[in-house]
Write a structure and sequence with these properties.
single chain, 408 residues, alpha/beta, Aspartate Aminotransferase, domain 2, 2 domains, seven-stranded mixed beta sheet, four-stranded antiparallel beta sheet, globular, binds pyridoxal-5'-phosphate
Amino acid sequence: MIRINEHYLKLQSSYLFAEIARRVTAHQQAHPEKPLIKLGIGDVTHGLPEACIQALHTAVDEMAADASFRGYGPEQGYEFLREAIAQNDFQVRGAQIAADEIFVSDGAKCDSGNIQEIFATEITVAIPDPVYPVYVDTNVMAGRSGGAVEGRYEGFVYLEGHRGNGFIPSLPHSPVDLIYLCYPNNPTGATIAKDQLQEWVDYARENKALILFDAAYEAFIRDESLPHSIYEVSGAEEVAIEFRSFSKTAGFTGTRCAYTVVPKACHAYDSVGRSHPVHSLWNRRHTTKFNSVSYPVQRAAEAVYTPAGQQQTKALIDGYLVNAKLIREKMTALGFDCIGGENSPYIWVDGKSDSWTFFDRLLTTAGVVVTPGAGFGRCGEGYIRISAFNSLENVTTALDRIETALKE
Ligand SMILES: *Cc1c(COP(=O)(O)O)cnc(C)c1O
């Protein structure tokens, strides 16, 4: 008899986006004359940078001729891309990451979901609240939690974010083995300072724990004092894995290219306490189960690091940051406390009522769709996430409508 992985039965249905869609559709059917503006999206909206498009075209033409055609490439990614990443994203910032510590992939979502399979089932996992749901669900699937009780899984250690700590959780009170951190944060837009990140790295070193650091939004950092990578913090290469993606950095959400950094100095332990390099485990997993990203897409990603690519991606993100600033300023002027929106495309707004009530109010009175914070965890209750991923025109119109609606 074929049996299922019953851990899947513990998963709570992804109620958030289905419920948003249901309420939006109901509203649209009742008021078809009023076009909605969506500021709830976690996806980019502008076209790819010209440098990437040119590189794609050239690589596609190479694939047409026998002499320049490429079949299977190295599973870890082409050397040209790994070198460009190591140099431009790490070495220039003083982080000693080498090309062979970079694993190119088709997404930080899959990497952050897949990585946990190289660790034991019995470990204790620390997960932020509010959180990007992938970290939670993949550990439930793997059997690292009990069932769900009032929206939380038994067995996980929840790292609570709230106004008091600026959505930077404090260190856990009970021992944990695997820690998820994401900065600049989705959904809160909060950023972490170097000394705060150092505390987590020190904790991991003292407790033989490992940090999974999701830096998908590092390109939105404009404050020079903030770390772009966890490897800018001393000792991190021994206790941290970092996820990066071209999705938000260069508009690759539909093109697909990302990478994971596993330093050779990073170790984990077997049941008798012997240490093993995590790099060799991940290399084994990656080469066994993955055949890398298509050649044209890796060339497009490489083009991000050319002078033209750097200038164009910066312009792209600067555009989203202009939107973010407008949103933050308007919501603040309307009397709401905001986090994020300065080094992040997300603005986390204290709605001064429960998340869904504020969501409904903005939908029905302003025709603007946001994301209820409660959908990202218990600590998100009372907040909404507003996304800057839209055109300047739509953002301006949405803010005008919100102002009018809330003043009524
Ligand atoms: C968008 C996003 C990613 C990127 O995922 P891809 O699979 O690379 O598109 C990773 N982490 C977080 C928190 C995100 O919001």
